[in-house]
């Protein structure tokens, strides 16, 4: 076990002496050293038998070249080495007995660093200690140290809970790093070389072990922006063939390197089988069935195999999952080729709670789920909220490939430092049926990316959010701020009831200020941008590299403020859209801060409130304004509630009906509109995101309901996620009181026969009438996924029934 100290280290005069047997020799040498010898060995013994009872006191008294010998005991202190050429060791060095490692403990008292080596401190040796119950070991920039035969375990920290190397140099020999927890990155070891040099060397003979650590990202190792490939010869690592889930090369732009792990043994083998989690489970179970479910989601993801040929699912059974209820640990890191799937957004609720250890740490956000350098990870069918945190994020990700987010509800979160969904540098994402609602922030908002994202957002709802930030000097962050990459599709999505308090801030920003390798292509179709309040533009789609943009069948309505409803630049084609807002202008061309990017804006078959005069041009840009555009009032269906999903659908008198482009080939639209109707009806498409008068669209799994005798009841879309439209035909009233309709309603029952809601109808209205069900019960609570029965009652008697499927 004894190893050479390495270049630059000079052993103390007492190294190699058995301290237990020769205390009289030590005493004599100490006297001689005190009379003028350069190097001194200082004895620390918590029992009081040595010169010092505190390690720190001995180090403070030391000069360069001195040694500090520590006798067994638990030393509850945070040790700081701020002097060059200090040698700190236990009796393990003198005896080669590893028992001294376990019995000589530096205890960080739960919230302090066990040991730190200060900036610019050189030639420090640490050997033969257990470092635990603190925030691990931290090496400051430009330090040079060597650690031998130490155990680093049971520590918690933001990054690098075992060892955090911050632009310093370290030689590791025979060090075991295990069972540590980092809230953000690198549970075992975090190596940070960004903006400075870092050098980490692992002894290839007296090998280290790194295993069973956990973190929000990079469970065991994260190396951030080092200068070359890092060779990591180990005795033991967590798993064989580790993925980026365990060891991550965190690369800055233009800095390519790899982590080359060569381990001789492995802590455990991942389970190549679906796993189950239950609030009543136990992490001592195997997790292979609901009856033997695990308790914590993190444990299930950690254990399940990442298998691209046969992806696995972590099934989260119904219930509430939180730190206080069942010891959940956050963040919960997602894993490549693993689907984390709840039982539905009403049945599976994840309540993020900050660990008390970090509750008072500034500039840190609660992250519920994280995904770091993963590929084809998936999170589905659950709701996410938080408790006890004023700065909360539902999902944080970095460098993701094909991240899938499906059927999720994120609500009552309070984003500040980062948004509810914060994803940076992600490609080929698919986000489908996402609901983000009921949020207040004074910082970041609903969606944010600080690096390019490519992919699809569809069938989603972003509503009821406000940014309360106010400043006379700077503008507030938009509620949606996404840096888009080469391609992006936004379709069948609602942005409604969003507000910015600051007087010069925009609400929604899609695009980017950096040049991408190829021309960006954005498609925005069948979307509703309504009830957006801000004094700058409501929505902006833009790019510095002249993007190609198609905005089709969208409705921009009910917006308020001094700015424009929409701002764009590049090669922009807008067709079949409605612009009807209480704003100074409807459309503006973005000059990109005078960068000289010209814009060609083409408008066809749109309703624009005041026509061409509602467009704010820019010097050198071209506007092609077709005579197929119309002006005036779109005559929406309206109603008492502007947040009703159908408020901005078309009434029978709307001039937008059949006002879209005659040729619908190549539009690339989904077959259904925002309400679930057929997107193209009567051989011509309507303007805006709703199609008037069409039958409900159904796919092959939901065949068209055959014609029924009067009365009639139809529901569409079916299955549905956010709401289903109800089309009712009541029998006509006749003079005979026996056949007159005096009452009518739709009673909604779950599959158990329990009544969940009743919707009153107008009994005096013969022919068609419309209503909708938003998937909530009488108390306003969202119902869980499943099959429901719509029972149409006329004069208190059941007339007919229809099944609908709610998919959360």
Question: What labels describe this entry?
Answer:
60 strands, Immunoglobulin-like, 28-stranded parallel beta sheet, disordered N terminus, 808 residues, mainly beta
Gyration radius, in Å: 33 Å
Beta-strand fraction estimate: 35-45%
The residue fraction in helices comes out at: under 10%
User: What quaternary form is this?
Assistant: single chain
Q: Which geometry do the CA atoms define?
A: elongated
Distance between the termini: 58 Å
Q: Which spans of ≥5 residues are poorly predicted at pLDDT below 50?
A: 1-37, 700-709, 734-738
Structure described in brief:
The protein is mainly beta and 808 residues long. The protein contains six helices and 60 strands.
Structure description:
With 808 residues, the protein is mostly beta strands. Among the domains are: 23-217 and 230-245 and 252-258; 452-694; 712-806, Sandwich (Immunoglobulin-like), CATH 2.60.40. It contains six helices and 60 strands. It has a 28-stranded parallel beta sheet that branches. An eight-stranded parallel beta sheet has the order 3-6-9-12-16-20-23-25. The longest helix is centred in the N-terminal third of the chain and has 12 residues, at 23-34. The relative contact order is 0.04. Mean pLDDT is 87; it is low at 1-37, 700-709 and 734-738.
